[in-house]
Amino acid sequence: MRYFKPGAIASVMALSAGMATAGEIAVIVKTTNSNFWQNVNKGAEAAIADQSEHTFSFDGPATESAVADQVNLVENAINRGVSGIVLAPSDPEALAPAVKRAFESGIPVVIIDSGLTDSAKDSYQAFLSTDNCAAGEEVAKRMIAEAGSEGKVAVMSYVAGVGSEIGRVGCFSDYLTANSDLEIVGPYYSQSQMAMALNQTTDILASNPDLVGIFGANEPTAVGMGRAIMQAGKAGQLVALGFDGNEDLQQFVRDGLMQATAVQGSFAMGQMGVNAIIDILAGEKVEPFINTGVVLVDQANIDSDEAKNVLY
């Protein structure tokens, strides 16, 4: 992954080896108003329940676009002297200075879900995420298989420039362009607001009646997209693919409104992120990149153990 330089990991590990081994682990996500991030919280709770030395806190801004609020949460965690931070950065550049300050304060940081700018690559110990590029390509393959190789496909994205969005949406679009004659409409950015995604999708469906496919690239975007398709009476008339796996998206798949949704290991991000901080505080080695995986859930496998382990 481009987020790491091998020498940086060794130097950070040396820094963290002498730190206190008990205390608060702050889990700071993009927003608390999302089932996806609440599932991260459940994973963190599971990790904490397995030991007795550490406590944890869970926080995030009201919306993913409230980047300044997330920066303040990280700064507050540093100021109160937490033992470690698990962070899902809403903006790859805006969060970098705060993460650097944590490093300078001797606080280990593990990044989950979305990466930081390369300028911050020496300031954190591990990155846990879906391989978003590979996931985007898997969704693109499914789109071609379901929709064919000609026609228009709308791309409903969330926040421009976020690390997960760059890989997920970028590689989806690149794969379609390289392997089909499908024309991409968009991307459109919902700012991870379900209502905005609904309105955008409604407009796109009306102005592009010849769409053969549509992709909603995260939970609130895909939910808004699905509701717009339903309201427009176009369920089953185009290939709809989503990303993430809350109850709304599961129901869309069961009803056939959505052919499949790619579901990340959100529980794993919380559990493995907290465990990584615990290992770092204990002086143990942690891999610089940990892939938390993705499962393409459809009607055929939605009740399988594989799907149940990632749906939420």
Automatic annotation (TrEMBL):
Query: Mind listing the GO molecular function terms for this protein?
Result: carbohydrate binding
Q: Does the keyword rRNA processing apply?
A: no
Q: Which GO terms describe its cellular component?
A: cell envelope
Q: Which residues form a coiled coil?
A: none
Query: Which segment of the chain is annotated as a signal peptide?
Result: 1-22
Q: Which UniProt keywords apply?
A: Signal
Predominant location: other
Xref: CDD domains? PBP1_ABC_sugar_binding-like
Annotated Periplasmic binding protein domain ranges read 25-285
Tell me the PANTHER family matching this sequence.
D-ALLOSE-BINDING PERIPLASMIC PROTEIN-RELATED (PTHR46847)
Report the sequence similarity comment from the record.
Belongs to the bacterial solute-binding protein 2 family.
Designated name of the protein:
Monosaccharide ABC transporter substrate-binding protein, CUT2 family
In which organism is this protein found?
A: Paracoccus homiensis
